[in-house]
Amino acid sequence: MKLTTKTRYGTRAMLDLALHCDEGPISIRDIARRQDLSQKYLERLLVALQAAGVVRALRGAKGGYQLSRPPEHINLREIYHIFEGADGFVECTSNPEICHRSDMCITQEVWSEMYGAGMRILEATTLADLVQRARRKQTVDVYFI
Q: Could you tell me if 65 and 48 are in contact, meaning their C-beta atoms sit under 8 angstroms apart?
């Protein structure tokens, strides 16, 4: 399983917002600088995250982005689904009708089990958990995923 850049960078942006959630709205410039990301690319990610309802944008001189819910109420599965979708690792696991071999396919079962195991881990991991991990590592400014 490979994660797209959108998922990896989107998760880094969400972690940055979680780490700084007590500071009010955070500018794209600050997130981009701390995470070493392009502001333009980061803006597209934040628009997707906003559309999904996990961040909100505030306009004005002191505007920026912030989490829409506390970090302990946002899990990584939610972020994964925003960028990767919920179709599974192989399309036939969520839509068996597309393959004439679905009812006898052994590998489909393995792909489905693998996806389920991964999603359980992502669902059990919140942004608050990542914040704790980051603080234990004492790396407050840059997080590479």
A: no
